[in-house]
Amino acid sequence: MSNAAISARRNEAIARGVGMTTQVYVERARNAELWDAEGRRYIDFAAGIAVVNTGHLHPRVVAAVSGQLERFSHTCHQVVPYEHYVALAERLNELVPGNFAKKSVFVTTGAEAVENAVKIARAATGRSAIIAFSGGFHGRTFMTMSLTGKVAPYKTAFGSMMGEIYHAPFPVPLHGITVDASFQALDRIFKADVDPSRVAAIIVEPVQGEGGFYEAPREFMTRLREICDRHGIVLIADEIQTGFARTGKMFAMEHHAVAADLTTMAKGLAGGFPLSAVVGRAEIMDAPGPGGLGGTFGGNPIGIAAAHAVLDVIEDENLCERAETLGARLKQRFAGLAEQVPQIAEVRGPGFMNAVEFNLPRSATPNPDFANNVRLKALERGVILLTCGVYGNVIRFLAPLTIEEGVFAEALDAIEGALLDASSEVRS
Ligand code: PMP
After folding, report:
1. 271: Cβ below 6 Å to ligand 1?
2. Helices 405-427 and 319-335: crossing angle, nearest 10°?
């Protein structure tokens, strides 16, 4: 069946609120490549939005999942528990940055992890206000949508947001927002809106994902930690997009001098199976009473089995190092194009969490049309790219960290071609 025919059915059958960036209906996928309903091959630089960091169907993930399917698929851990759930918690408690005793809880989606982190912080502090950052993305449920710092399309038409949520500007020097400016705004929130003694948590992405791949400066994170310590506020690192070797470290907070109290993770945790977690300081994690956390599918045994395999692969295949190598090559290649493509404002990102931001040539005005055109031209050349950014003027690169050398080189050529095409189209 053709992509167009399935698309026509999709338009009839699926609510339009579920956005769609391509009409490539996938048939099968392997590592960094996928094939669509018409047999066309693509290189996947989206990886299911930073999920299959270990590639599509890594043989060790497949083996772990198949093995689990031969034993049991679901009992609900709250009813009949299983050992590998406990073992995964033990592994994550070790791996997550922070030199203190930790505990974990497993849920199903990224948004659900953030919801639970907020509940835990509220229970631990007896306070209710939460501070998040403009440009941040934390999910689509009511609490997480309210925390998200971007209105369209996430908050449009959905009525009033949850109370006691305040947004401070995230420091983006490229956009003229310095670390100092960010803290001045935070201080204004404490003076004008809410006393810090009423704030349960500050939630921050160590590298903003949907917001545009902006890395939190080290000084910013250190000062946030100081504010949290001074006022008894829980610091939550949302590592849902940054986690699992993407930034060149298992967790992006390893790039910082300070640790968060709670860390949320999802996406890359289980290599494509729906599993998420909150991991953090044992005494904070234990604040909610028995029955206060959990869910029917939370910590599903198949996802847990997959996650163990993902962690093994990251370790055994040195994927943190690989992220550094791939990212360095990509950044060098595209930074070298800035002369020929004057729309390139910046090429950035730690490890292999990379992005290119586009402005109108030699100006500070965001250029979302150009970003979208590059994305479409790359798609024509067989590479799936995603945009991001509050202005939609950023292309992000999220290929699996296991991508083969030849496929990576081919993708860089195709993306370079797309950039040059898009730029020459504007000139002609
Ligand atoms: N937090 C961050 C940083 C994310 O990038 C995302 C997903 N893009 C979420 C939360 C929400 O995750 P999910 O879509 O699994 O609910």
Report:
1. no
2. 30
Shortest-distance Cα residue to atom 10 of ligand 1: 138
Contact 218, 252 (CB under 8 A): no
**Of the residues 283, 301, 316, which one is the last residue of a structural domain?**
316
What's the pTM? 0.98
Gap between the Cα atoms of 332 and 348, Å rounded: 10
Instruction: Write the CATH number for 25.
Output: 3.90.1150.10
Backbone angles phi, psi at 297, to 5 degrees: -95, 0
Domain count, the chain: 2
H/E stretch holding 324: helix 319-335
Compute, in angstroms, the gap from residue 106 CA to the centroid of ligand 1: 15
188 and 98 belong to one structural domain: yes
Q: Can you give the residue range of the structural domain that contains 30?
A: 3-54+318-427
- The CB of 136 under 6 Å from ligand 1? The reply is no
Going by CA atoms, what residue is nearest to atom 5 of ligand 1? 241
Ligand 1 midpoint to CA 4 (Å): 29
Query: Is residue 211 located within the same domain as residue 174?
Result: yes
Peptide bond just before 153 cis, omega within 30 deg: yes
Q: Whose Cα sits closest to atom 12 in ligand 1? A: 110
CA 396 / ligand 1 centre spacing (Å): 15
pLDDT (tens, 9 = 90+) of the chain, 428 residues, equals 999 999 999 999 999 999 989 999 999 999 999 999 999 999 999 999 999 999 999 999 999 999 999 999 999 999 999 999 999 999 999 999 999 999 999 999 999 999 999 999 999 999 999 999 999 999 999 999 999 999 999 999 999 999 999 999 999 999 999 999 999 999 999 999 999 999 999 999 999 999 999 999 999 999 999 999 999 999 999 999 999 999 999 999 999 999 999 999 999 999 999 999 999 999 999 999 999 999 999 999 999 999 999 999 999 999 999 999 999 999 999 999 999 999 999 999 999 999 999 999 989 999 999 999 999 999 999 999 999 999 999 999 999 999 999 999 999 999 999 999 999 998 76
* The residue to which tokens 């609510």 are assigned: 15
- The token pair at 34 is 């996928």
Hey, which of 137, 145, 154 would you mutate to test ligand 1's pocket, going by the most ligand atoms within 8 Å of its Cβ? 137
Both 81 and 184 in one domain: the answer is: yes
Same domain assignment for residues 265 and 140: yes
CA distance 358 to 361: 8
Structure tokens at 271: 């290599």
